[in-house]
Amino acid sequence: MENFSNDVFTILNYQGSKKNLLSFIHKNTVEVIDDKKAVFDIFAGSCAVGYSFKRYYKIFANDSEMYSSVIAKALLQYNDKSLWEIYKNRFNESYQRNYNDLFKLFGKYAVEENELIRAEDIQKVKSFYDNYPTVWNGYLRLYNDTIRTAKDLKKRKNQIPYMLFTTYYGNTYFGVNQSIEIDSIRYAIEEIEDNALKNVLLTSLFFAMKECTFSKDGHMAQPLSIENNQTKLFNVRKKSIFDYFQRKLFDFQSPDFVLSSNDNIVFNKPISEVYNIDSLKQEVGFIYADPPYTDMQYSRYYHLLNTAALYDYDSISLYRGKVSKGLYRENRFQSPLSQRSNALDQTSMLFDYCKGNRINLALSFAYPRNTKEQATNRYTMDIEDIIGTAEIKFGRKNVKVLTEEYEHSNNRNKDTKKVLEYLIVCKY
Ligand SMILES: C[S@@+](CC[C@H](N)C(=O)[O-])C[C@H]1O[C@@H](n2cnc3c(N)ncnc32)[C@H](O)[C@@H]1O
């Protein structure tokens, strides 16, 4: 057990992912993990840490973001690789059916887009996308003008082909052809009855969306401007969503994908609601907690993944009466852990929960290496306050602080942020 094999299965380019820090986490937590109990990845994100423990323990995972729980279920609960063979033909038939139906409605745009992207004429491409009909720009008119808005689509969604991405995002984050592929994959996923496989397919779709999105670093906070990012536009628009989807699906089928006979459990709750779940108190012996460390809200960066999973033709969120550039869903989750005024209280509650229920804890937090020269104002907590609070709650001798130098990619500037990765290990 001391020689953990670092099982890594990448889906997203996830902010704060610990996939490159697994050895650091494993070697410093092994002595506080009770072999007979479960491990709980309580802010699972891309589930890099939960998955890396899958080979050895029963795993619980949680995250307030829905897309994260889909990924965690795929990584932790898909334990029968024969399922895909059983459903493959039905999936492909459903995909083709929706694709053909959408092509009847949007085929002329799809054909024109292909020609323009191949010719790489930026002015024509820009004008094409400016005039492409979406729910945002009022040009959409389908079925004798009976469908023009998101509300119309929502009302009629059971009578029409799956077309959310084609009508919302076919000229921004994705192209027309890519959106038709996303919608058709999503339709075919809905036809699958097995939940574990369904989550694998959704997760493979998330991967394909990340690979093909016209936005920065594979995040989906907002689409890029066409004029300023021409090379990137032509590169990503030549990619096929279906190809990338299939690639990730094959990875799930590969011998490297870790299987487990444990009944791993995944929640999708804000952390404050996790404390009421009784089974956790008996079963969990160790919590790994990797909360957000800056004031960026995850629901902004990955909103399209929630939309793909929920597929609910959500209304447009307005900012000062206008559609925002990011084209967000309404009612995104705003985490108190991403707010300076609340983060330390929330963390303190987690310490109380662990101490009160005899659960060992390791908490990760990244903080600038040089606090004199690097800004700390976007960080939700001061590292000294976290350590101080842990020492008060668990007693000084029961808290161990470990660090590792690390470089995070920075979205604002192209360069990296040099941070110290802290691991605060607390024994009850
Ligand atoms: C730093 S990331 C975790 C990264 C993860 N360890 C990985 O390797 O991918 C923090 C996660 O906390 C989640 N989160 C933020 N606020 C939360 C809350 N109040 N309750 C539960 N999860 C929350 C975010 O959605 C995000 O996925």
Textual characterization of the structure:
This protein has 428 residues and is an alpha/beta fold. The chain is built from 17 helices and nine strands. The strands form two sheets. A seven-stranded mixed sheet has the order 3-2-1-4-7-9-8, with helices on both faces. Strands 5-6 form a two-stranded antiparallel sheet. It is globular and about 70 Å long. The two termini are 22 Å apart.
Strand content: 5-15%
Largest sheet: 7 strands, mixed
What class do helices, strands and sheet pairing give? Answer: alpha/beta
* Mean pLDDT figure: 94
Q: Compute the CA-based radius of gyration.
A: 23 Å
Query: How many strand units?
Result: 9
SSE string: HEHEHHHHHHHHHEHHEHHEEHEHEE
Question: What separation lies between the terminal Cα atoms?
Answer: 22 Å
Shape: globular
Number of domains: 2
Going by CATH, what is the homologous superfamily of the largest domain? Vaccinia Virus protein VP39
Query: Going across the major beta sheet, what is the strand order?
Result: 3-2-1-4-7-9-8
Architecture blueprint of SSEs:
Elements: H1 22-29, E1 38-41, H2 48-53, E2 59-62, H3 66-77, H4 83-119, H5 122-131, H6 150-156, H7 164-168, H8 176-190, H9 195-212, H10 230-237, H11 241-253, E3 265-267, H12 271-274, H13 278-283, E4 284-289, H14 298-301, H15 303-310, E5 318-319, E6 322-323, H16 343-356, E7 360-368, H17 383-394, E8 399-409, E9 416-426
Parallel strand pairs: 1-2, 1-4, 2-3, 4-7
Antiparallel strand pairs: 5-6, 7-9, 8-9
Bound molecules: S-adenosylmethionine (SAM).
S-adenosylmethionine binds near residues 17, 18, 46, 68 and 271.
